[in-house]
Amino acid sequence: MELNRSESCPSGLSVAGSSSASVTTLGDLPHYFDADELEQFSGQLANDPIQSHMFPSSSSIKQEPGFSSVMSLVTETTTYTSPSSSAVYSSAGALKNEPQSPTASSSTSSLPTHCDKKSLSCKDEGNIQAAADSNSQKQFVPCKVCGDRASGFHYGVTSCEGCKGFFRRSIQKQIEYRCLRDGKCMVIRLNRNRCQYCRFKKCLAVGMSRDSVRYGRVPKRSKSQDDQSVSSSDPNFDQSAIENKQLAIYDIILSISQAHHANCGVTEDKLKNLQRKASTLMQKIPIPSVPVQFTDEELEAQKLSMWHCLAGLITPAIHSVVEFAKRVSGFVELSQDDQLILIKTGFFEVWLTRMARMFNKVENHFTFEDGSVISKEELAVVFSPDFVNCMFEIAQSFNHLNLNDTEIGLFCAIVLATPDRRGLEDSKAVELIQDRLIEALKLQICRNHSTEENLFGTTIVKLPQLRTLGVQHNEILEWYRLQWHRIRLPPLFSEIFDICKHEDDV
């Protein structure tokens, strides 16, 4: 599969400047960045004051059909191509638009005309000067994303209009960005349009809420604290040290969120356009006019036929789960054998977690990604009544947690990176991956569900429940594995559940 992917600046964010820009010095940069950041950015400008950067346009994924094994999906490489378009950015041009703070002279010149300035004592002049400096400092509140002048409290943090609009468009249009510099670009006012991936990551890192874009305003829980800290703190206060401690976690949250939205067909936004249609796993057979009694062999054949239809509905999800797994941080660094073990043993649990919102306990039916609605009774024929009841129960309890898509994606990644799967070569590496994901989920839940103290613990408790259901599902499959020669299943489905393939597929 080849992904032709490009990223472009959103409308209104293109940047341009003149090649006759003056040389930028440290004194020209905003005063609220620390010396290390200023030195870094000054060096970038001195070495290449006018740069052309690649901005890929909106991503489009082209999937090639024909994958017949999980191994081919795992080992298949993904390439990214960018168009040859470029944009010229002038740092000096941006500096010319730097808003100037009111000076002491302008403040003193605004005194009433009948007041004799010469009659003012040195003490009075000093008080006026101090008041002017204090007002100047309080008037400027920096954007936590890029450092520009903040226009207000947007999506949970003080930010400028540019970053506010950029974050809103990124969420509403579900834009997926890529960084050409390993996600380590510095985001400040002068270069905030250069790397959209790092800018979006910074938005999340400083606390902008994805849900506030979708559901509207959030309580101004920390506006006064932010303003006070900005106005009373040292102008050279370095916030980057604090932010960098969480950037790695926020990077995980961002990558998992994008991977889940790109590879899950039942996200909130996609369900709005889902067309549901009544369906069945049973074949149409003529109904005799007189009662008949089917033989055990005929009943087994009907059960196998229903399972075959169910396999066809589940198989498309295998490809999406594999693609999701490849984008979990640290997963592709594992050996191919460990990757296959994690995907094959964890697929059913991940699939059930993603599809939990599709279980309808009131009407007793289940909806697949393509909109096919299957009754609970037919699922009970394929599996067993008790097992299907457990599926509906755990799905309902998971839905009661009210997790958003990002949190569901993080939980699915935690399920996938279970370190005690049988046969793993490097369980320690898998455990490290899962620990980072658990920390990311905890941070995300604490940020979005601050009033629900026990939500994180209640969510983690679902892991052993899913594991138990996965074991029961594997036991049910034992009978179907013995019937492999009687039915031809999709090759991916056969491999993911360790079922012998039909001789025509070998």
TrEMBL record:
Its subcellular locations are:
Nucleus
Q: Which residues form the NR LBD domain?
A: 248-499
Ranges of Low complexity composition bias in the record? 11-21, 99-113
Please give the Gene3D superfamilies that the UniProt record associates with this protein: Erythroid Transcription Factor GATA-1, subunit A, Retinoid X Receptor
Asked if the Swiss-Prot or TrEMBL record annotates the protein with the keyword DNA-binding, the reply is yes
InterPro entries cross-referenced by the UniProt entry: NHR-like_dom_sf (IPR035500), Nucl_hrmn_rcpt_lig-bd (IPR000536), Nuclear_hrmn_rcpt (IPR001723), Znf_hrmn_rcpt (IPR001628), Znf_NHR/GATA (IPR013088)
Superkingdom classification of source = Eukaryota
Q: Where is this region: Disordered?
A: 1-21, 91-114, 215-238
Q: What keyword terms does UniProt attach to this protein? A: DNA-binding, Metal-binding, Nucleus, Receptor, Transcription, Transcription regulation, Zinc, Zinc-finger
User: Which Pfam families does the UniProt entry name for this protein?
Assistant: Hormone_recep, zf-C4
| Family, similarity comment | Belongs to the nuclear hormone receptor family.
| The protein's name | Ecdysone-induced protein 78C
